[in-house]
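Async update (no meeting this week)

Hi team, since we skipped the sync, here's where things stand on the single-chain job. The sequence we agreed to prioritize is pasted below, unchanged from the tracker. I ran it this morning and attached the output directly underneath so nobody has to dig for it. Comments welcome in thread, and please keep replies under the output.
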Amino acid sequence: MFFDNLNEIKPIASKTGTSIFVVPDKAEVSIDDAIMVQPDEKASITIEQVREMIRRVELRQTNDVYIVIRPAEKLSQEAANAFLKSLEEPGEKVHFILVTSAPGLLLPTILSRGAIYIYRGESPVRAGIDASEEVKSLAKRLLAVKPDEVMALAEEITKHKDGVRAYALSVIGVAIEMLYKTYLLNGKYVFLQKLPRFLAMYDAVERNGSVKLQIVANLI
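Output:
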């Protein structure tokens, strides 16, 4: 769903327990008396911060409580996993507001638990994909590849002469961007279901795993 005014965030969030708002980084989001959860000095939102936030909202609330997590993509994997149960059962008067400009970096389990709202004005979801036509073509093929074609495609990607790992990461990254943008714009769950494999592939390749092996392992 789309919205046109940043002032609509609180009224929209008041109608649901968990909502995800996709807005540009520079967009000012101001919600009176909200509990703010932001990255610590390590530039991530830690499991300790999430546990403290959960403790604060576990008490019975007499008034609506708004918790803003921004940028939500900075939730560490541990923090995001610890957050899942609260997202499923936030409490009658508790409203979690996840603000992000990069929804593709959120765990699919997080994306699937919240109503998603996209800022129409300068939405990063509506922006084009910044990559060469060659990379975009390979990314599209990676998304649609059949099991018996995976090895050949993996070999094609790893034939890049300079910086094989960086090149493969760019192709996988564009595939991830295509998946989440298509899901957010069309709401077809099949695209969200594919995300975990591509996120795992990207993470493994980034950590110096064999490029060809990781592509094959995650797609067959």
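Quick observations from my side:
The mean pLDDT is 87.
The CA atoms of residues 172 and 202 lie 6 Å apart.
Reply here if anything looks off.
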